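Lab notebook, page 48
Experiment: co-folding of the full assembly
Goal: obtain a model of how the components sit together before planning crosslinking
Operator: M.T.
Materials (sequences as entered):
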Amino acid sequence: MPNVTERLTPRAREIVEAARELLEQEGAEGLTMRRLAEQLGIRAPSLYKHVPDKATLEVAIIATGLEDLAAALDAAVEGAAEPLAALTVAYRTFALSRPHLYRLMTDRPLPREHLPAGLEDRAAAPLLRAAGNPTRARAIWAFAHGMVLLEVSRRFPPGADLGPAWQEGITAFQADASRSSRKVGTE
Amino acid sequence: MPNVTERLTPRAREIVEAARELLEQEGAEGLTMRRLAEQLGIRAPSLYKHVPDKATLEVAIIATGLEDLAAALDAAVEGAAEPLAALTVAYRTFALSRPHLYRLMTDRPLPREHLPAGLEDRAAAPLLRAAGNPTRARAIWAFAHGMVLLEVSRRFPPGADLGPAWQEGITAFQADASRSSRKVGTE
DNA sequence: GTCTATAGTGGGATAGAC
DNA sequence: GTCTATCCCACTATAGAC
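Observation: model returned without errors.
Model output:
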């Protein structure tokens, strides 16, 4: 299983695209080779002429998701007055608009050996820049990730207003940023 | 499917206990009625004399996990000089020592109708007290939840030192707490 | 409380023809 | 590039005997 997004035949690309749609409509359990074939109007065994197995297909889906995330975050910081706030909003929007893809992307260790080189770094770069150092970037990522997952898993009490909670975290980390840059500069 | 932890026969309790162990050893996919029976030295159909179905069993597992979490957090705050720091440490310890149970507890909406009354509130109370208001409690919870999940999913870069990231978040929210209590008091 | 037998469903994947 | 036929696996759950 070599790098996945590269050297994908056009037909394979269509299959990955259909798989993403199916995943989003039906969730991870609904993503089966049989249903995917059905969505494409073919039989399941035909898929194996274009994709070696289901695991490879999932890696390809994850790769497209990371590409999209990187693009969304890049667009969000561009010329933003408050990069941290802009990034968290974009991150939340990304995740809530494709919750099942987001889960697939974060549920498991990244299949780094099978991802295009530099992709993970590209997706992480905007936040790393806004946060100033890896430690703060990780803390802020964790906050956003936790908010998003608790939101899509509907684990907060029903009716909880989450806007203020997001704002609370953003404010806390912004203040922390100025305080810690006074103290230690960048890491 | 009525409230689950109450009115469990002794044999049913043993089954739930074995299920928790199996879950932790094998992960959520390894928790099947067949394997559970095997662990107990019986056949799968025999389980159904004691437990109505698998969904009920999962709810019972979640309930025991919430009980344990509530107890761990209560113990952590008791007499702690820095309740917020103590709580995050206890939360992390809880989750990392039973990652699959933790996932099961947070993956999906809480089955509130089938949980003992007040259990969710009991588990949430220590953080709510330490945070001062629900909004901040939610933000801090999200931070801890995100850290824990990224940690157990091994999504951080390999070798990343996560102690500083935890500290960063704790510090940020502690500072935020004093600032916002000056401004608005409790919610 | 446990068993055997079994129903019913659905999954990933391969062989080989067209 | 797609098909049919098929294998083999695993799962939840029920019926009914002991």
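Interpretation: The longest helix of chain B spans residues 54-77.
Next step: discuss with group before ordering constructs.
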